Amino acid sequence: MDRNKLIKALSDEPQRQWDIIVIGGGATGLGIALDAVTRGYKTILLEQSDFAKGTSSRSTKLVHGGVRYMAQGDLLLVTEALHERGLMLKNAPHLTTNQEFVIPVYTYWDVFLYTVGLKFYDLLAGRLSMGKSYFINRKRAVQRLPLLKSEGLKGGIVYHDGQFDDARMAVTLAIASIEKGGTVLNYFRVGSLLKDEKGKITGVIANDLMSVNEYRIPGKLVINAAGVFADKIHSMDDPESKPTIRPSQGVHVVLDISFLQSGSAIMIPKTDDGRVLFAIPWYGKVVAGTTDTPLDMVTLEPRALEQEIDFILKTAGKYLTRQPKRKDVNCIFAGLRPLAANPDNPEATKEVSRRHKITLSRSGLLSIIGGKWTSYRRMAEETIDKAVKERIIEKRKCVTKHFSFYSNGNPPVSERLKIYGSNASQIEDLIREHPELGEHIHEKLPYTKAEIVWICRNEIPVTLEDMLARRTRALILDARASAEAGPAVAAIMAKELGFSKSWQEKEISEYKDLIKIYT
Ligand SMILES: Cc1cc2nc3c(=O)[nH]c(=O)nc-3n(C[C@H](O)[C@H](O)[C@H](O)COP(=O)(O)OP(=O)(O)OC[C@H]3O[C@@H](n4cnc5c(N)ncnc54)[C@H](O)[C@@H]3O)c2cc1C
After folding, report:
1. Is the pTM value of this prediction over 0.90?
2. For the chain, what is the mean pLDDT?
3. For residues 236 and 243, what is the distance between their CA atoms, to the nearest angstrom?
4. Residues having CB within 6 Å of any atom of ligand 1
């Protein structure tokens, strides 16, 4: 995988007419690119930063139908998402797991409500169910979750949902699209749209942020999958366009697993202010969150508010015998939900449907906003189908339902390397050939130097942050340890990718600044 080669192909053939140009390399755009490429359309995707740098690396990491949306009565949304959950677990078994959840219940009414509700959730999942839900008494609830406060506890409802690695799923989508013949570029920002004399969109003007070169890229269809930035693309199309996104911030904190001491996750369906709170084991840590704070500004690097962090820690302490404190936090990360704005109640966020919206502007800009990670495949299918229906592109059948990201190659010896899917054995080979690459990048982090080398060769990282935040999840697992690992990782990257000493120094210093936001 060589970013420069992809760009060279672009400059060698500047007049090449693309069928589809996708703006945005998050879950939505990457899903669309893969759908389009596998249908046989000539496709290019442009991401202004790294894949999943936006919301798509900052999720709760659940592949779920959304127990909460059932309470809102959106059964169609839940059923569709449960179906997609099943497909994602089948198609990307190396990046997804079946996670057991326990809802602690403190009243007999809640025992009834959640037992019945989750039975219904199982029913909606149908053949793609991940395991039956059931009630457990107080003793068994505490056995499962040893740190759960037992005072007033009536028991727990056990249910199953999927869990995944969001940023690794994103890079997997990007690489799969490239392997299938698509062009997928990170650090490429779309600055404006090209239009003909009738005002119809005919392509985009984009800049390679690494070389600052500008490219005019002609295409039949431009798709706006820019997440919370979708309105910026709408204004490129029509400066008078009205806002369609209501951004809402969600924060998570990452704690040591000793704050949960269990393989089961906790789900609190209704905290004091009506939000859902999860505490979920993930890569040997606990991810706890989230919040729902309406914002007016959008940025690629959102910052958690102190009150959001306090809320998560305090709420966790209400249910756990060990109260996590600010000093116990390994990492804090914030993400922005690209919720479709409700014109009748623009302030509402908890109540806003998580359903996606697809729109086509008069000039031909096809936009998709809202939705969730779990439904990325279906959202992509609907977006391309819409373009077919509008006769912008010729009809071709969607083939992603059974598109597997995992082929049974050599099974990895190490369970941890399973995240690299069929390629895991290549990392093991590297360690066999060069035993020094078996060293960890930091004593507190699970990653070896061999993984850094392999990622450089196969997953188009451009910055140190790409490597530590999204190709590996070092930043999230332990932000401070990741910064300490920075110099060693930067040195490997420089050697592999041909970067200079001054590149290393710049990256290390920028990364040190960045982790302040995460600590
Ligand atoms: C706190 C939180 C928790 C969540 N938890 C879950 C969960 O557990 N499960 C689930 O299914 N869903 C979850 N979601 C929802 C899910 O994460 C989002 O729906 C999804 O990631 C949105 O993806 P996206 O591609 O639309 O947006 P993004 O990931 O933000 O991608 C948009 C991309 O467009 C790029 N872009 C913008 N402008 C330009 C331009 N001019 N040129 C080029 N590129 C551009 C941006 O850089 C960005 O990378 C959660 C969301 C949040 C906020």
Report:
1. yes
2. 94
3. 13
4. 23-29, 46-49, 52-56, 58-62, 64, 189-190, 225-229, 250, 290, 300, 335-338, 371-374
